[in-house]
Amino acid sequence: VRRGQRSLEKECRVQIELVDQPGQVEAAFDEFVRLHQSKWQGENQLGHFGDWRGAYAFNRELVETLGSRGRVLLMRLSVGGEPIAYEYAFVHGGRLFWRLPARQTGEPWDTLSLGRVSLSYLVRESVGRDIRVIEAGSGGYAYKRRLGADELTLGAMIVAARRPLALARGWWLQRFARLMYLGYYRLWFARIAPRLPLRRRPLWSLWIRSKV
Hints:
This protein is an alpha+beta fold. It has helices at 2-11, 25-41, 48-51, 55-67, 114-128, 142-146, 164-192, 205-211; strands at 14-19, 72-79, 82-92, 95-103, 133-135.
C-alpha cells in the first residue's frame, strides 16, 4: 500500500479533500455518482446505481438527511482540480461505514493501483479523526482481506407465527431465497450474463425482495 502511495504521489500532485459540511455533500455526492457510473459503464456494466432500482434516489435522500447532521463523509482525490477517486461513507458513533468507491480508469491510473491506494487514504484520514472501526459492508472481497479486514458472518431471521401454514411458508421462503441467490444472482447475473452480448439490465425486484 505504501509503495502504491509513493508511486501515485511521485507521478501526480494529489489533493485530498474531506467533504462533510451540509450544503456541500450533495454536490460532491452527485460528482461521485458520475465518476462511479462512468467506471462501470466503461466495462459494459450498470454500476451500483444502475443495478439497484431506485438506488440513486435512496442514497441522495440519505445524503440530504444525514448530511445535515454531519454523518456523511466523502473523500475526494484530485489532480489538477479534476477528481480521480472518491470514497463515499457515513460516520456515526466513532465508526465509519464505508459505502462505495469511485475512480478513474485507464492509464496511468490502472498501473498505480488507484482503487487500493484511495481506500488506504480513507483509512489514514479516518485514524486522524479518531475513528477506530471501519465497517466495509457485506461481500467477502479479497482486497478487504488484503487490507487486514476481519470477516464476520451475516445472517437473516424470519419471524413466523406458530401455525403450520405460517411455518411452512417461512420454510419455503428460505429455500426460495437460496435458489434465487445461487441460480439467478451467482450463476446468471454474475457469471453468464456479463459474457453474453446482451444489454445489461437491473437486478430483478423479486431477487431483491427475497433478500429483504
